[in-house]
Amino acid sequence: MKLGIIGGSGQLGSTTAFLAGVRGLFSEIKLADINKNLLKSHVLDMNQALTAESNTRVSLAEYADLAGCDILLLTAALPERSVSSRNDYLKGNVEIVQGVCDSLKKYCDEKIFITATNPIDICNYKAYSFLKWNRNKFIGFCSNDTLRLKWAISNLLKVGFDRVEALCIGEHGEGQIPLFDRVFVDGAQKVLSPGQIAGVKELIGNWFADYQKLQSGRSPGWTSAAGLAVILRALVEGSEKPLPCSAILDGEFNERGLSIGVPCRLGKNGIEEIVQIELRDRDEKKFRETADKIRMLLGGAGGP
To answer: What does the domain layout of the chain look like in residue ranges?
Structure first.
């Protein structure tokens, strides 16, 4: 299989390419970007680094070259800056998504399309509306919300990260919904006290603001790249374990006409199954409110 990354010279695109290359998930990874010199430096460097790790080869690409890819990953975005919300990138990044999709339509037929451009839920749905491919081909990357939920729980309970199972659904951002009735430690359900839940919420609620205060000019690309590598492996090899993804709903969870974070089983066809789970009343209410918010943002984002 072959992977194409649009935005391949950026931090997230290049880091994801390297991780996927080290794991040998693809025979070839094609990188496309407007910054050609930086792109060329990544290709030269990465190909040398990967010779001792796998048989994956990395190449420069124009949009026409992406026609031979099985999976496309969009990481292109506005430059990182200090913002109060991922939705502050809305207008500019939707314009980038539209430009990318307009170019893809000239050369590419239907492929699996992963959106890693913020705001994820909006950009993933816009890519679907621009390209008009099967909705199950579109995967919005939102795994970081679940990762940070598990990180917060493991820190609060002082247990290893790998011992914790948890799930976040909803919007990638302020509208994320931690499902505290689905927390497991060592395979056994863990009922958190109100104080523990408040502590977890404080940790994950403050994370984005604390990161922004650093004004480092970089995104948390290593975290996102590691999560994207998990998604890519599931698409190549299949996975019985559901993974959190922003998916285009058409009746699932009694919603349609938007992309929102839900558990999904992934495989070579993209989203093989949207796993419908029962939500507690308060989580159900928050899910409806979040879906309404996403629809409102979609209405103000322009395009189809």
So the answer is: 2-141, 143-299
d(CA 29, CA 18): 9
pLDDT surpassing 80 at residue 275? yes
- Whether pTM exceeds 0.90: yes
Instruction: Specify the residue for token string 């935005």.
Output: 7
- For 143-299, the fitting CATH number among 3.40.630.30, 3.40.50.300, 3.30.70.1150, 3.90.110.10 is 3.90.110.10
From CA 169, how far away is CA 238, in angstroms rounded? 21
Evaluate if residue 276 carries a pLDDT over 90: yes
Other beta carbons within 10 Å of 188 = 7
Closest CA to 24 of 51, 44, 43, 6: 51
Residue 206: pLDDT above 90? no
**What are the tokens at 33?**
């970007």
CA distance 35 to 87: 25
CATH class of 2-141: alpha beta
Residue 241 is predicted with a pLDDT of 93
For residues 283 and 279, what is the distance between their CA atoms, to the nearest angstrom? 6
